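step=encode ok
step=design start
structure_in=
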């Protein structure tokens, strides 16, 4: 009865594994066609291809007399675990250690093919247990930092792989008939299933985050766009109004950008926009919210900042850009900007703050450009090169 039940369950398990791996490979193929493929996609694809071949070999062995030499099976399993670890390191952007892991995995794989079955089994279980620990630690750390539930599942897969290898090692050191069966086999299979589910969840969450970033970021400057600005400032302005904290804004416009494009091509204008965005990121604080508000207009909202503080920052930005300039084909080109600054009223909204900053910007442009103008809910003030009039 038990033998009959096992004979029925085993083909079903092999079929389920083949279906899962095949579905995962299809998902990987779809992901490879997106604009920005996920990091580690190629290594994960190799891992699942190797797993697909292994499951197919096990399935064939269930119904025929065909069987792989133990060294080949050990080498394939160790190589798949190594690919999983390397893919995780690539996703984590680990700059060191990947070459060492690949070298050690390659050396151990060659050793498995050269050693006798007993020694190969000991090497395989020991090396795989070490890889399982590394996989668990890497993805646990990544899930802690990134909050991705998929990485939690892959970390659990590393734990399952480690436990499977420790159980197999225990059985190898005792007179056991099947050191890689029973609990060890179940844990090993569970590890692969957790990897498949974990990677699927991780990629879905990362793609969702990427779509959200694409909807809120300007692709050229990588700054927030208007939608991202509104989302980022919704809570900031409400807290500032509730606690009576000052909030200021700087609206910046590049002088004569169309003329720059006409004389040097559209690429010159794009480089000017990127240079201004880098300048804003350098000069502004981490708490400041910077966005590309319009085609050639930028907006920086400065929480807990007075109008005078905004004026000082605007003049630093102006000086920074005038000093750096723009270099096209090794030719320096002056880069000047007009800036309008404003502060928020106690009951002010983002729309009112932007409208006031735009009024000041228009005044700076209409009075000769390359100026800083301010709206203080008093008569407008203009300054140029640090001087006030």
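sequence_out=
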């Amino acid at each position: 009865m038990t033998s009959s039940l096992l004979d029925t369950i085993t083909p079903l398990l092999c079929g389920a594994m083949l279906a899962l791996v095949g579905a995962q490979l299809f998902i990987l193929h779809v992901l490879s066609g997106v604009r920005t493929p996920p990091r580690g996609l190629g290594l994960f694809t190799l891992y699942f291809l190797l797993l697909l071949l292994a499951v197919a070999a096990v399935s064939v062995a269930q119904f025929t007399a065909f069987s792989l030499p133990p060294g080949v099976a050990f080498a394939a399993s160790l190589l798949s675990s190594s690919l999983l670890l390397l893919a995780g390191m690539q996703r984590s952007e680990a700059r060191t250690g990947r070459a060492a892991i690949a070298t050690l995995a390659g050396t151990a794989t060659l050793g498995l093919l050269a050693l006798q079955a007993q020694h190969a089994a000991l090497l395989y279980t020991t090396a795989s247990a070490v890889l399982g620990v590394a996989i668990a630690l890497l993805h646990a750390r990544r899930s802690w930092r990134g909050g991705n539930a998929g990485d939690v599942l892959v970390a659990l897969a590393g734990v399952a792989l480690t436990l499977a290898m420790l159980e197999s090692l225990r059985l190898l050191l005792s007179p056991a008939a099947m050191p890689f069966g029973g609990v060890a086999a179940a844990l090993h299979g569970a590890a692969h299933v957790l990897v498949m589910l974990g990677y699927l969840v991780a990629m879905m969450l990362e793609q969702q985050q990427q779509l959200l970033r694409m909807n809120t970021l300007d692709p050229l400057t990588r700054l927030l766009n208007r939608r991202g600005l509104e989302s980022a400032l919704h809570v900031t302005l409400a807290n500032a109004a509730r606690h009576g904290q000052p909030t200021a804004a700087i609206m910046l416009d590049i002088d004569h950008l169309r003329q720059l494009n006409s004389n040097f091509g559209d690429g010159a204008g794009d480089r000017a926009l990127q240079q201004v965005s880098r300048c804003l990121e350098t000069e502004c604080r981490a708490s400041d919210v910077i966005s590309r508000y319009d085609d050639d207009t930028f907006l920086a909202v400065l929480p807990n900042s007075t109008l005078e503080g905004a004026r000082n920052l605007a003049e630093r930005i102006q000086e920074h850009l005038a000093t750096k300039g723009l270099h096209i084909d090794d030719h320096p080109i002056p880069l000047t900007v007009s800036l309008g600054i404003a502060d928020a009223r106690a009951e002010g909204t983002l729309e009112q703050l932007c409208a006031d900053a735009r009024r000041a910007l228009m005044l700076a442009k209409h009075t000769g450009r390359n100026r800083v103008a301010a709206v203080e809910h008093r008569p407008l003030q203009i300054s140029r090169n640090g001087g006030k009039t």
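step=design ok
step=annotate ok -> DSSP finds twelve helices and nine strands in the chain.
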